[in-house]
Write a structure and sequence with these properties.
The chain is mainly α. The protein has helices at residues 4-21, 51-73, 79-96, 104-110, 125-128, 133-136, 140-151, 158-175, 180-189, 209-212, 224-236, 241-249, 255-269, 271-280, 287-290, 293-300. The relative contact order is 0.20.
Amino acid sequence: MPRLFLRELRSAIWQDNHTKAAGVRENMTRRRIQPRTGSMPLVRAGAHITDDTVLATAVLDAAMSIRKEIEQKKTTIENVACVYRYERSLRDYAQTYPDAGYGGAFYHWAILGEAKAGYKSYGNGGAMRVGIIGAMFDTIDDVICQAVMSALPTHSHPEGIKGAVVTAVAVFLALHGIGKKSVLEYMESCYQEKDLDGIPYKVKTDMTLDFLARVPYTFASVKTQDTLPEAIIHLKNSDGYESCIRNIFRYICDSDTIGAISGGIAAALYPKEFQKICSKIQPCEGVYRVLTKEILDNAAELTI
């Protein structure tokens, strides 16, 4: 089969680059911003990576080591060992790149060491870094298991885990030829009226983009329960990879994270368009400091 692994790795990086690098600015009072024109560059001069790129690569690094060991030993790895590898990789990468823009709770856990692992976050960080797992493993059961393991060190709240699983499974389904309609049906089935705590979702997956613009947004709007429905809306209202990314440009939101989630799935749904765009645009500053030649060489050995 084609090396979908590397393609999906690029997608985890490029969504972060494209959305933050395009110059989207968060705002406390107004959600909507002036729609961009089709000529707006996807990557601007002076753009830089954010925590999404760093932590997506951390998950990649851990997942590669897990997969290699499974293949070499022809056996499974205990779940606790998998969780430890993801935890160690997340900490190592965060400490190597401490100024990438991490959320407060993650910063206190990974860099300051002031929080215990599994601090029950339901933020969107577990979902934003996990897309690569959907391209790393051969069965949907393995994808679900590894998505859970990758979330547990930080996002161990049931909603945090669910967001990671839904994102990784959506990527897996898209890469294995399940069409956009079925991928969206799966995702929407996971985000109906209320969350796992019985609280109604603020963002409904049947909202239009214009209606979404009226939903209040603040810097605190980083719950998985808010982010995944919004990512679904951007996917639903797109007809390709670039249109999905440009949808995210149009509105004040947690742009790099929503880009990493919905853009990663869009890249899997529209691989030819995605590859064409990547061949024409250079990634922004800092990508290859994180995504080293060693990681790329190791990734090139893996296929799904």
